[in-house]
Amino acid sequence: MLLAALLLVLSGAVQASEPFRFGTAVRPDGQTLYVDGTGILLNGEYVLPVMGEIHFSRVPESEWRREVLKMQAGGIDIVACYIFWNHHEAVEGQIDWSGNRNIRKFLEICRDCGQKVVLRVGPFCHGEVYLGGIPEWIVDKAAADPAQYALRTPAPGFVAAVSRFYDAIGEQARGLLWKDGGPVIGVQVDNESSGPWPYFAALKQAIIDAGMDVPFYTRTGWPQMEGPAVFGEILPLYGDYADGFWDRELTDMPGDYRAAFRFKDSRLSAVIATEVFGTDQSTEMSREDLSYPYLTCELGGGMMTSYHRRIHIFDRDALALAICKVGSGSNLPGYYMYHGGTNPSCEDHSMAEFQASKYTFWNDLPYMTYDFQAPLGEMGQPNQSYHYLRLLHQMLRDWGGELAPMQPEFGQGPLRTATRRSGDKGFVFVNNYERMASLGAQPWNFFGQELTVPEGASFCFPFGLDFKKLHIDWATAQPFCKLRKALYFVAVDGIEPVLKIGGREYRPRLDKPFRVKGVKIVVMSPERALQAYKVSERKVRFCDGLLYRDGRRWVTERWVAEGAVDAESVRPAGPAREIALGSAGVAEQPVPADFDAAAVWTLSVPTVDKPEDWFLEIDYDGDVARVYADGRLVEDNFWNGRRMLVRVSDLAGRSAELRILPLRKDAPIYLQQAQRATLEAASGDTLLALRGIRLIHRVTKR
Question: How many CB atoms are located within 10 Å of the residue 98 CB?
């Protein structure tokens, strides 16, 4: 196998990663994975993979395999995950890899499912975790002895403690790295750090010393480095978000969030982590940083709600971001988050970020839920964004190798467009969607076709592509997938699908195949496309739910409402609490004692087979809702207009109780327009209502 790899290198089929200085790129079976100034090369050919974040320690161990397979079915090629240090070493010297913390088992599942992995090993992760993932014992040491333990610096005691944790991670990952035939292809060094460079250099060396020899090492490209960095040692990866819970302002789309919905030649965002780095972050990039490929690790797949800022993400937000980033030249859309989760419980305090903590004290986050309104939510429930993104991801799987080396050209005029081309072939990306804004329908001339692009549309049209004996001059439909003898496209609502092939125009009927030179061509309606899955090089299958492959079997998953759940009111709410501003200057969330004045209902949880597949969906209006089982908090929710989901497996056989606090009309929090209207329409000075509870069944069939 090593001889085969050597022959590949000597033949020039593999493009070396010089001048980048990363780890072993050759697997025992001869497969190679390199990064160059353009993008990622697998076995010497460009690919345009998709990366999605999931936190294994926030997802039940029993669900890992299914959820990884669902991510794969959604078009995720690389799984990214933080390893939160304080989830594993809460007590110095006692590292816990059991249960939901079993990183080795998670990596083995990714290997078996064929998913590559990037580990984000900290020591600081943030991830809205208590103390940013740094254990409290080392936070205390840093306070007592900063010369030895200053956090996130080259201080010798701190680096030594981090190195010991890296050693433990390396032992868990032994035999599971790319060079071993395993899934781990990359490691991120710290997170959202400006350096200095000796700090990054010390951590990278500690990662290598721990045995984590991988094809590439990364860091977040924001904030920009303080002082010079050594080029070629660590890849900067970028990000952007549709909106942010962390902003201090209580207004719609503060700062420069709207820039995320435009094609642009800057990789940097001025809106990430503004509570830490401020709103004056530079978007000017150095020549050295522009010599790296344009890859992302935090493209907003959704957004959390903080107590003071109740973001409600819309279904098309993430797709528009992805279209804009890929159209602007990114060769790795990497979503944060792609799959939500639940924080581990702690008797002493929340395991989420909160203002009263010793570190990461910028925002108050829910104690338990980390749903993130992601394509796959906290319990693995699919949001509509999952399917919208899935169509784009399938196109990138089949045409990404052609797209990756194409450079962007930015359109002029009111319609937002970008073209990536190589000679006379390429792709035109269009985004006529902006969150919480009205752009209106826009005229567009596409290869002589006078089109009207509807408001809210985000898509990609091809031109100059070849397939078998066909030359596709252009198409006013988005490519979906290639089969051995077929092409599938997706129509855009409001735009007539026309395909010009070999100089002849075809105007197909939606969902009706036709043939040109022996090639079957199907232009799917938008509704039909959302049910389409490429299952092999010969076949597309249609499913009105999720469809994923588990071994040799295909599995369908549907989330079905199975009726109402009774809730008995046992106590009305007391007076609404006064909402103070916390240490970070934003509204402070309620503490456990405040729920003594909440409205209380007891829940009649039905007895069901396999309770892990059943959920309560709670539709309420108010401030904060919490669900308890035998007095223990199992789920919470900051109201933002979305329904709250609770695992029946957390409640089965226990006394279940729902508590909701009323929301004051004068609360110093941000609500979006629809939720603000609901609040203002409430009688009296507060809002509180339980609208109903439904029983939801996750139905899987093989």
Answer: 9
Task: Tokens for 240, please give them.
Answer: 């952007």
- Structure tokens of 99? 């249960």
* Closest to 404 measured CA to CA, from 423, 424, 422: 422
User: Helix 64-73 to helix 103-113 angle, to the nearest 10 degrees?
Assistant: 40
Query: How many CB atoms sit inside 10 A of residue 448's CB?
Result: 7
417-459 confidence digits (pLDDT tens): 999 999 999 999 999 999 999 999 999 999 999 999 999 999 9
Q: Which CATH architecture has domain 559-701?
A: Sandwich (2.60)
CB 592 within 8 Å of CB 607:
no
Partners of residue 657 on adjacent β-strands: 602, 628
Query: Within 13 Å, how many C-alpha atoms sit on residue 328's CB side?
Result: 25
Domain boundaries along the sequence of the chain: 47-400, 408-544, 559-701
What superfamily would CATH give domain 47-400?
A: Glycosidases (3.20.20.80)
Query: Which residue bears the tokens 């402070």?
Result: 588
Locus of tokens 């697997």 = 27
258 class by beta-carbon count within 10 Å (0-12 exposed, 13-18 middle, 19+ buried) = middle
- In tens, the pLDDT along 30-67 reads 999 999 999 999 999 999 999 999 999 999 999 999 99
Under DSSP, the state recorded for 92 is T
CA distances for 479 relative to 184, 415, 428, 472, 507, angstroms = 31, 21, 11, 11, 16
Q: Please, are residues 434 and 314 in contact by the beta-carbon 8 Å criterion? A: no
Whether the pTM exceeds 0.90: the reply is yes
The phi and psi torsions of 391 (rounded to 5 degrees) equal -65, -45
CA distance 564 to 178: 49
What class is the 408-544 domain?
A: mainly beta
How many angstroms separate the Cα of 65 from the Cα of each of 70, 109, 129, 190? 9, 6, 24, 27
R_g over Cα of the chain: 25
